[in-house]
Amino acid sequence: MTASVSAVNYRANNLEFIRLCAATFVIVSHAFTLNGVPYDPYYAWTLHGSLSEIGIKTLFTVSGLLATRHWDDDPNALRFGLRIILRIMPGLAMVTLLCAFVMGPLVTTLPKGDYFASPLLPGFLSNILIYPIQYELPGVFTNTPVPGVVNGSLWVLAVEASLSLGVAILGTLGFLRWRFVPMTLFLGSIATRITLQKLHPTPIIWMWMDVHTLFDCGACFFAGASLCKFDTVLPRLPSVLFALLLLFVACMGTSALPVVTYFVLPYLIFCIAFEENKMTQMISEIGDLSYGVYIYAFPVQQLVVLMFGTAMGAILSMTLTTLLTFPLAALSWFLVERPMMSLNPFPRRKPAPPQLPILDVPPVAPPTTASVAAHTSATS
User: Fold this and answer.
1) Cα–Cα distance between 115 and 241 in angstroms, integer?
2) What is the predicted pLDDT for the residue at 2?
3) DSSP assignment string, 315-377
4) CA distance readout (Å), 270 to 80, 226, 379
5) What gap in Å lies between CA 293 and CA 332, rounded to an integer?
Protein backbone atom coordinates (compact mmCIF):
# COMPACT_ATOMS: atom_id res chain seq x y z
CA MET A 1 0.00 0.00 0.00
CA THR A 2 1.29 3.41 -0.95
CA ALA A 3 0.71 6.62 0.98
CA SER A 4 -2.13 8.65 -0.45
CA VAL A 5 -4.14 11.71 0.49
CA SER A 6 -5.76 12.22 -2.92
CA ALA A 7 -9.42 11.89 -3.84
CA VAL A 8 -10.61 8.31 -3.92
CA ASN A 9 -11.91 6.65 -7.05
CA TYR A 10 -15.52 5.51 -6.66
CA ARG A 11 -15.62 4.09 -10.17
CA ALA A 12 -12.83 1.55 -9.73
CA ASN A 13 -12.41 0.25 -6.20
CA ASN A 14 -12.31 -2.91 -4.11
CA LEU A 15 -15.51 -2.36 -2.16
CA GLU A 16 -17.36 -5.33 -3.63
CA PHE A 17 -14.35 -7.56 -2.99
CA ILE A 18 -14.38 -6.42 0.64
CA ARG A 19 -18.10 -7.12 0.99
CA LEU A 20 -17.67 -10.54 -0.57
CA CYS A 21 -14.95 -11.36 1.95
CA ALA A 22 -17.19 -10.09 4.76
CA ALA A 23 -20.08 -12.32 3.66
CA THR A 24 -17.65 -15.25 3.52
CA PHE A 25 -16.55 -14.48 7.10
CA VAL A 26 -20.17 -14.98 8.14
CA ILE A 27 -20.27 -18.36 6.40
CA VAL A 28 -17.11 -19.48 8.18
CA SER A 29 -18.34 -18.38 11.59
CA HIS A 30 -21.81 -19.86 11.14
CA ALA A 31 -20.32 -23.17 10.02
CA PHE A 32 -19.20 -23.85 13.56
CA THR A 33 -22.38 -22.56 15.22
CA LEU A 34 -24.79 -24.41 12.94
CA ASN A 35 -22.84 -27.64 13.41
CA GLY A 36 -23.09 -27.31 17.17
CA VAL A 37 -19.36 -26.62 17.63
CA PRO A 38 -18.61 -24.07 20.40
CA TYR A 39 -15.75 -22.47 18.51
CA ASP A 40 -15.08 -19.35 16.50
CA PRO A 41 -11.70 -18.65 14.87
CA TYR A 42 -11.83 -14.92 15.60
CA TYR A 43 -12.78 -15.42 19.25
CA ALA A 44 -10.07 -18.04 19.66
CA TRP A 45 -7.56 -15.44 18.52
CA THR A 46 -8.85 -12.30 20.27
CA LEU A 47 -11.10 -13.61 23.11
CA HIS A 48 -13.81 -11.15 21.99
CA GLY A 49 -16.59 -11.27 19.44
CA SER A 50 -16.81 -13.61 16.46
CA LEU A 51 -15.80 -13.71 12.83
CA SER A 52 -19.42 -13.20 11.80
CA GLU A 53 -19.51 -9.98 13.86
CA ILE A 54 -16.42 -8.71 12.04
CA GLY A 55 -18.05 -9.59 8.73
CA ILE A 56 -21.25 -7.75 9.66
CA LYS A 57 -19.34 -4.72 10.96
CA THR A 58 -17.50 -4.64 7.64
CA LEU A 59 -20.75 -4.80 5.68
CA PHE A 60 -22.24 -1.94 7.68
CA THR A 61 -19.12 0.19 7.29
CA VAL A 62 -19.20 -0.19 3.51
CA SER A 63 -22.98 0.40 3.48
CA GLY A 64 -22.58 3.64 5.41
CA LEU A 65 -19.88 4.85 3.04
CA LEU A 66 -21.88 4.03 -0.09
CA ALA A 67 -25.24 5.25 1.26
CA THR A 68 -23.73 8.63 2.10
CA ARG A 69 -21.98 8.78 -1.26
CA HIS A 70 -25.24 7.99 -3.05
CA TRP A 71 -27.03 10.73 -1.14
CA ASP A 72 -24.32 13.25 -1.94
CA ASP A 73 -24.59 12.30 -5.63
CA ASP A 74 -28.37 12.72 -5.66
CA PRO A 75 -29.84 14.30 -2.49
CA ASN A 76 -33.47 13.36 -3.03
CA ALA A 77 -35.30 11.23 -0.44
CA LEU A 78 -37.77 9.67 -2.90
CA ARG A 79 -35.13 8.57 -5.36
CA PHE A 80 -32.80 7.47 -2.57
CA GLY A 81 -35.53 5.34 -0.98
CA LEU A 82 -36.50 3.80 -4.30
CA ARG A 83 -32.91 2.73 -4.92
CA ILE A 84 -32.73 1.12 -1.48
CA ILE A 85 -36.00 -0.75 -2.07
CA LEU A 86 -34.96 -2.01 -5.51
CA ARG A 87 -31.60 -3.10 -4.12
CA ILE A 88 -32.87 -5.02 -1.09
CA MET A 89 -36.40 -6.27 -1.66
CA PRO A 90 -36.25 -8.23 -4.96
CA GLY A 91 -33.42 -10.51 -3.79
CA LEU A 92 -35.05 -10.84 -0.38
CA ALA A 93 -38.39 -11.73 -1.99
CA MET A 94 -36.79 -14.44 -4.11
CA VAL A 95 -34.90 -16.15 -1.27
CA THR A 96 -38.01 -15.95 0.94
CA LEU A 97 -40.24 -17.52 -1.72
CA LEU A 98 -37.71 -20.27 -2.45
CA CYS A 99 -37.41 -21.11 1.24
CA ALA A 100 -41.18 -21.06 1.78
CA PHE A 101 -42.40 -22.89 -1.33
CA VAL A 102 -39.47 -25.03 -2.50
CA MET A 103 -37.17 -25.91 0.36
CA GLY A 104 -39.77 -25.82 3.13
CA PRO A 105 -42.22 -28.38 1.68
CA LEU A 106 -39.30 -30.70 0.81
CA VAL A 107 -37.74 -30.84 4.27
CA THR A 108 -40.63 -30.15 6.66
CA THR A 109 -41.49 -32.86 9.18
CA LEU A 110 -45.19 -31.97 8.91
CA PRO A 111 -47.71 -33.26 6.38
CA LYS A 112 -47.91 -30.94 3.40
CA GLY A 113 -51.44 -29.88 4.26
CA ASP A 114 -50.44 -28.88 7.78
CA TYR A 115 -47.41 -27.07 6.43
CA PHE A 116 -49.38 -24.84 4.08
CA ALA A 117 -52.17 -24.30 6.63
CA SER A 118 -49.79 -23.16 9.38
CA PRO A 119 -49.89 -19.45 10.36
CA LEU A 120 -46.08 -19.55 10.40
CA LEU A 121 -46.04 -19.63 6.60
CA PRO A 122 -47.64 -16.20 5.95
CA GLY A 123 -45.60 -14.83 8.83
CA PHE A 124 -42.42 -15.98 7.12
CA LEU A 125 -43.57 -14.50 3.81
CA SER A 126 -43.88 -11.12 5.54
CA ASN A 127 -40.07 -11.08 5.65
CA ILE A 128 -40.30 -9.64 2.15
CA LEU A 129 -41.39 -6.38 3.78
CA ILE A 130 -38.25 -6.44 6.01
CA TYR A 131 -40.25 -5.52 9.14
CA PRO A 132 -40.80 -7.68 11.17
CA ILE A 133 -38.44 -10.61 10.60
CA GLN A 134 -39.66 -14.15 11.31
CA TYR A 135 -37.16 -16.99 11.29
CA GLU A 136 -39.41 -20.06 11.46
CA LEU A 137 -41.20 -22.19 8.91
CA PRO A 138 -43.55 -24.97 10.11
CA GLY A 139 -41.62 -28.18 10.81
CA VAL A 140 -38.43 -26.96 9.05
CA PHE A 141 -34.99 -27.54 10.60
CA THR A 142 -36.49 -28.70 13.88
CA ASN A 143 -33.74 -31.28 14.48
CA THR A 144 -30.62 -29.27 13.71
CA PRO A 145 -28.23 -27.86 16.38
CA VAL A 146 -29.86 -24.46 15.84
CA PRO A 147 -33.49 -25.61 15.60
CA GLY A 148 -36.29 -23.75 13.88
CA VAL A 149 -34.18 -21.00 12.34
CA VAL A 150 -34.49 -20.95 8.55
CA ASN A 151 -32.62 -17.76 7.76
CA GLY A 152 -31.08 -16.22 10.84
CA SER A 153 -29.14 -13.61 8.85
CA LEU A 154 -32.15 -11.52 7.83
CA TRP A 155 -32.11 -9.32 10.95
CA VAL A 156 -29.31 -7.32 9.34
CA LEU A 157 -31.68 -6.05 6.62
CA ALA A 158 -34.03 -4.40 9.12
CA VAL A 159 -31.13 -2.63 10.81
CA GLU A 160 -29.60 -1.53 7.50
CA ALA A 161 -32.93 -0.27 6.20
CA SER A 162 -33.39 1.73 9.42
CA LEU A 163 -29.93 3.29 9.17
CA SER A 164 -30.41 4.08 5.48
CA LEU A 165 -33.68 5.78 6.41
CA GLY A 166 -31.64 7.79 8.92
CA VAL A 167 -29.37 8.96 6.10
CA ALA A 168 -32.40 10.11 4.09
CA ILE A 169 -33.81 11.99 7.09
CA LEU A 170 -30.48 13.64 7.93
CA GLY A 171 -29.94 14.57 4.30
CA THR A 172 -33.45 15.97 3.85
CA LEU A 173 -33.01 18.12 6.96
CA GLY A 174 -29.71 19.37 5.58
CA PHE A 175 -27.49 17.91 8.30
CA LEU A 176 -25.34 15.92 5.86
CA ARG A 177 -24.00 19.16 4.45
CA TRP A 178 -21.71 19.27 7.49
CA ARG A 179 -19.09 16.56 7.43
CA PHE A 180 -18.78 16.45 11.22
CA VAL A 181 -22.39 15.24 11.68
CA PRO A 182 -21.62 11.60 10.70
CA MET A 183 -18.51 11.72 12.87
CA THR A 184 -20.60 12.91 15.82
CA LEU A 185 -23.12 10.12 15.23
CA PHE A 186 -20.27 7.62 15.00
CA LEU A 187 -18.82 8.65 18.36
CA GLY A 188 -22.29 8.99 19.89
CA SER A 189 -23.26 5.47 18.81
CA ILE A 190 -20.11 4.06 20.41
CA ALA A 191 -20.77 5.93 23.66
CA THR A 192 -24.42 4.84 23.72
CA ARG A 193 -23.52 1.22 23.01
CA ILE A 194 -21.00 1.16 25.86
CA THR A 195 -23.42 2.87 28.26
CA LEU A 196 -26.25 0.49 27.42
CA GLN A 197 -23.96 -2.49 27.91
CA LYS A 198 -23.05 -1.23 31.39
CA LEU A 199 -26.53 -0.21 32.53
CA HIS A 200 -28.72 -2.76 30.75
CA PRO A 201 -26.71 -5.71 29.39
CA THR A 202 -29.79 -7.73 28.44
CA PRO A 203 -31.41 -7.14 25.02
CA ILE A 204 -33.80 -4.21 24.60
CA ILE A 205 -36.24 -4.94 21.77
CA TRP A 206 -37.61 -1.96 19.83
CA MET A 207 -39.23 -2.19 16.41
CA TRP A 208 -38.24 -5.87 16.24
CA MET A 209 -34.59 -4.94 16.71
CA ASP A 210 -32.21 -5.15 19.66
CA VAL A 211 -31.20 -1.59 20.58
CA HIS A 212 -27.70 -2.76 21.56
CA THR A 213 -27.25 -4.20 18.08
CA LEU A 214 -28.72 -1.11 16.46
CA PHE A 215 -26.11 1.17 18.04
CA ASP A 216 -23.33 -1.37 17.47
CA CYS A 217 -24.09 -1.56 13.76
CA GLY A 218 -24.87 2.16 13.71
CA ALA A 219 -21.36 2.95 14.92
CA CYS A 220 -19.92 1.03 11.97
CA PHE A 221 -22.44 2.53 9.54
CA PHE A 222 -21.63 6.11 10.55
CA ALA A 223 -17.93 5.27 10.56
CA GLY A 224 -18.40 4.52 6.87
CA ALA A 225 -20.39 7.73 6.43
CA SER A 226 -17.55 9.65 8.08
CA LEU A 227 -15.05 8.05 5.71
CA CYS A 228 -17.15 9.28 2.80
CA LYS A 229 -17.21 12.83 4.16
CA PHE A 230 -13.46 12.91 4.84
CA ASP A 231 -12.33 10.80 1.86
CA THR A 232 -10.40 13.64 0.23
CA VAL A 233 -8.48 14.70 3.34
CA LEU A 234 -8.03 11.44 5.25
CA PRO A 235 -4.58 10.03 4.43
CA ARG A 236 -4.19 6.37 3.60
CA LEU A 237 -0.82 5.83 5.20
CA PRO A 238 0.85 2.47 5.84
CA SER A 239 2.41 3.87 9.01
CA VAL A 240 -0.98 4.85 10.45
CA LEU A 241 -2.50 1.51 9.53
CA PHE A 242 0.43 -0.36 11.05
CA ALA A 243 0.12 1.66 14.28
CA LEU A 244 -3.59 0.92 14.51
CA LEU A 245 -3.03 -2.78 13.92
CA LEU A 246 -0.38 -2.80 16.65
CA LEU A 247 -2.90 -1.16 18.98
CA PHE A 248 -5.45 -3.81 18.02
CA VAL A 249 -3.00 -6.61 18.79
CA ALA A 250 -2.05 -4.98 22.10
CA CYS A 251 -5.72 -4.85 23.14
CA MET A 252 -6.53 -8.47 22.30
CA GLY A 253 -7.97 -10.27 25.28
CA THR A 254 -8.91 -7.00 27.01
CA SER A 255 -12.22 -5.16 27.35
CA ALA A 256 -10.81 -2.33 25.20
CA LEU A 257 -10.73 -4.44 22.04
CA PRO A 258 -14.37 -3.85 20.96
CA VAL A 259 -13.88 -0.08 21.20
CA VAL A 260 -10.56 -0.17 19.36
CA THR A 261 -12.18 -2.26 16.61
CA TYR A 262 -14.61 0.58 15.85
CA PHE A 263 -11.61 2.67 14.75
CA VAL A 264 -9.21 0.09 13.33
CA LEU A 265 -11.65 -1.79 11.10
CA PRO A 266 -13.04 1.24 9.18
CA TYR A 267 -9.56 2.60 8.51
CA LEU A 268 -8.41 -0.83 7.32
CA ILE A 269 -11.42 -1.01 5.00
CA PHE A 270 -10.74 2.52 3.72
CA CYS A 271 -7.11 1.70 2.94
CA ILE A 272 -7.93 -1.55 1.14
CA ALA A 273 -10.98 -0.21 -0.70
CA PHE A 274 -9.17 2.38 -2.77
CA GLU A 275 -5.81 0.68 -3.22
CA GLU A 276 -5.16 0.00 -6.89
CA ASN A 277 -5.24 -3.74 -7.46
CA LYS A 278 -6.35 -5.11 -10.81
CA MET A 279 -7.28 -8.55 -9.49
CA THR A 280 -9.57 -7.35 -6.70
CA GLN A 281 -11.07 -4.72 -8.98
CA MET A 282 -11.80 -7.42 -11.55
CA ILE A 283 -13.64 -9.39 -8.86
CA SER A 284 -15.60 -6.26 -7.98
CA GLU A 285 -16.51 -5.70 -11.63
CA ILE A 286 -18.06 -9.19 -11.99
CA GLY A 287 -21.12 -8.11 -10.06
CA ASP A 288 -22.45 -7.40 -6.59
CA LEU A 289 -22.62 -11.00 -5.36
CA SER A 290 -22.10 -10.25 -1.68
CA TYR A 291 -25.78 -9.58 -0.95
CA GLY A 292 -26.83 -12.88 -2.50
CA VAL A 293 -24.09 -14.73 -0.64
CA TYR A 294 -25.26 -13.24 2.63
CA ILE A 295 -29.00 -13.94 2.28
CA TYR A 296 -28.63 -17.48 0.84
CA ALA A 297 -25.80 -18.81 3.02
CA PHE A 298 -27.75 -19.45 6.22
CA PRO A 299 -30.57 -21.61 4.76
CA VAL A 300 -28.03 -23.45 2.62
CA GLN A 301 -25.91 -24.17 5.69
CA GLN A 302 -28.92 -25.41 7.61
CA LEU A 303 -29.85 -27.62 4.67
CA VAL A 304 -26.32 -29.06 4.48
CA VAL A 305 -26.39 -29.87 8.20
CA LEU A 306 -29.85 -31.45 7.86
CA MET A 307 -28.80 -33.64 4.93
CA PHE A 308 -25.34 -34.73 6.06
CA GLY A 309 -25.47 -34.25 9.81
CA THR A 310 -22.80 -32.75 12.02
CA ALA A 311 -20.45 -35.70 11.53
CA MET A 312 -19.02 -34.10 8.39
CA GLY A 313 -17.55 -31.32 10.53
CA ALA A 314 -17.56 -27.56 10.24
CA ILE A 315 -14.77 -27.34 7.63
CA LEU A 316 -16.44 -29.63 5.11
CA SER A 317 -19.79 -28.04 5.88
CA MET A 318 -18.52 -24.52 5.15
CA THR A 319 -16.79 -25.73 1.97
CA LEU A 320 -19.94 -27.35 0.62
CA THR A 321 -22.01 -24.35 1.65
CA THR A 322 -19.68 -21.99 -0.20
CA LEU A 323 -19.78 -24.13 -3.35
CA LEU A 324 -23.58 -24.06 -3.30
CA THR A 325 -24.09 -20.46 -2.17
CA PHE A 326 -21.90 -18.62 -4.66
CA PRO A 327 -23.74 -19.97 -7.75
CA LEU A 328 -27.07 -19.10 -6.10
CA ALA A 329 -25.75 -15.59 -5.41
CA ALA A 330 -24.65 -15.24 -9.04
CA LEU A 331 -28.08 -16.34 -10.28
CA SER A 332 -29.73 -13.93 -7.86
CA TRP A 333 -27.58 -11.05 -9.11
CA PHE A 334 -27.87 -11.66 -12.83
CA LEU A 335 -31.51 -12.86 -12.95
CA VAL A 336 -33.19 -10.90 -10.14
CA GLU A 337 -31.21 -8.12 -8.50
CA ARG A 338 -29.55 -6.43 -11.47
CA PRO A 339 -32.65 -6.56 -13.74
CA MET A 340 -34.79 -5.06 -10.98
CA MET A 341 -32.26 -2.32 -10.29
CA SER A 342 -32.30 -1.46 -13.99
CA LEU A 343 -36.02 -0.63 -13.67
CA ASN A 344 -35.15 2.41 -11.58
CA PRO A 345 -36.39 5.45 -13.54
CA PHE A 346 -33.92 7.64 -11.65
CA PRO A 347 -30.47 6.15 -12.30
CA ARG A 348 -27.80 7.45 -9.99
CA ARG A 349 -25.31 9.80 -11.54
CA LYS A 350 -21.95 8.14 -11.85
CA PRO A 351 -19.20 10.07 -10.14
CA ALA A 352 -16.66 11.58 -12.46
CA PRO A 353 -13.33 9.81 -12.66
CA PRO A 354 -10.53 11.43 -10.67
CA GLN A 355 -8.73 14.11 -12.65
CA LEU A 356 -4.99 14.51 -12.78
CA PRO A 357 -3.72 17.88 -11.55
CA ILE A 358 -3.26 20.49 -14.27
CA LEU A 359 0.27 21.89 -14.25
CA ASP A 360 0.67 25.59 -14.85
CA VAL A 361 3.25 25.30 -17.61
CA PRO A 362 3.49 28.05 -20.23
CA PRO A 363 2.81 26.81 -23.73
CA VAL A 364 5.76 26.26 -26.01
CA ALA A 365 5.42 27.96 -29.38
CA PRO A 366 6.35 25.90 -32.42
CA PRO A 367 9.63 26.92 -34.05
CA THR A 368 9.38 29.39 -36.93
CA THR A 369 11.46 29.51 -40.10
CA ALA A 370 13.27 32.63 -38.88
CA SER A 371 14.20 31.07 -35.54
CA VAL A 372 15.54 27.95 -37.23
CA ALA A 373 17.65 30.06 -39.62
CA ALA A 374 19.02 32.17 -36.76
CA HIS A 375 19.92 29.05 -34.76
CA THR A 376 21.62 27.51 -37.80
CA SER A 377 23.70 30.64 -38.47
CA ALA A 378 24.67 30.91 -34.81
CA THR A 379 26.00 27.36 -34.65
CA SER A 380 27.74 27.36 -37.99
Assistant:
1) 53
2) 52
3) HHHHHHHHHHHHHHHHHHIIIIIHHHHTT-SSPPPPPPPPPPPPP--PPPPPPPHHHHHHHHH
4) 23, 11, 59
5) 9
Strands 205-206 and 209-210, by their bridges, are: antiparallel
pLDDT tens string 265-310: 999 999 999 888 888 878 877 888 999 999 999 999 999 999 999 9
d(CA 63, CA 258): 20
Task: Report the alpha-carbon distance of residue 332 to residue 93 in Å, rounded.
Answer: 11
- In this structure, are residues 2 and 25 in contact, taking their beta carbons and an 8 Å threshold? no
**Burial of residue 106 (number of CB atoms within 10 Å: 0-12, 13-18, 19+):** exposed
DSSP string across 25-77:
HHHHHHHHHHTT----HHHHHHSSS-HHHHHHHHHHHHHHHHHHHHHHHS--H
**CA–CA dist 163, 218 (Å, integer):** 7
Tell me the whole-structure pTM to 2 decimals.
Answer: 0.89
